[in-house]
Design brief:
Chain lengths: 151, 151
Amino acid sequence: MTRNEEEPVGPDALDRVTWALRRAELAVQAAKEQRLRALGMAVSHYALLITVHSQPGLAGAELARRLNVTPQAVASLVARLEGRGQVERREHPRHRHIQELHLTEAGREALRAADAVVAEVEQQIKDALGAAPAEQLRALLDEVCEAVRED
Amino acid sequence: MTRNEEEPVGPDALDRVTWALRRAELAVQAAKEQRLRALGMAVSHYALLITVHSQPGLAGAELARRLNVTPQAVASLVARLEGRGQVERREHPRHRHIQELHLTEAGREALRAADAVVAEVEQQIKDALGAAPAEQLRALLDEVCEAVRED
DNA sequence: TGTCTAATGTCAAACGTTTGATACTGACGT
DNA sequence: ACGTCAGTATCAAACGTTTGACATTAGACA
């Protein structure tokens, strides 16, 4: 037989779980983006708003870790959202040059509107899969996170 | 009761399926990127190589659709990979200024090495979940794609 | 045959993010 | 009390991608 120390790349390499994961994520992200565009909001803006909403008073650097982006990217987003009056930067009580991030009333209003349309996508998925499989999907996805985190 | 025409954004909004999907995709993508960096290859390069490998002779615009990016992004990637001698652009037999994309032998070699480490991530997931749940996950993800595509 | 349309490829500019480097602040230890 | 260190914020530059626009080409239809 011929030398095959290097096994060839199979034609079914695109049918992997990780590719299905990527396709699904792209499709969901596109669906969110499409719905949010009508409200003049980007997905990254929505992600920032809902994260600050669920945990008010976060520092920019800490927020960057949660969003999986760099602190500079957060600063850029905050600057824009602050210009729209949806986010405000308060001075940290103990550390002076650290700034706590909070939502303004306008920010909460914008988030409510955005979350309504994003929740539609979530509901769309649950309707198609059923409640139990959807929950199972969520559990499997969390397991995937765990599996690839520690190596 | 108070006015609640606008329902508040629940604190459990981050526990949705779509967020678990995003977290898992980011984690998997990060794992791939980390392993591919050692080979001096970006995830986008790997994605292009394996797509061209599975379907040789694709045009740039068609390839862009499969990768969910713009034709310019593909042109940029192809230019770089062509500079490395991993991809070549042949003239389409019928259409003159359309260029078929093919892998060179060096490209196939690089793809083999890259695919080996990417397959490790896939195996890592299958080991953690088990074969049957992994396949079920893949099926559920495909259902998610279908669910959000048509609206 | 001539024109129209759809599709491809490429150029230039704008955008958002990352990378690298710097300044500042508060806590901790010897 | 003082120096060291970790964490935060900000600036400048580079990178990769998208957006918009344009030239080219082949097939379709009259």
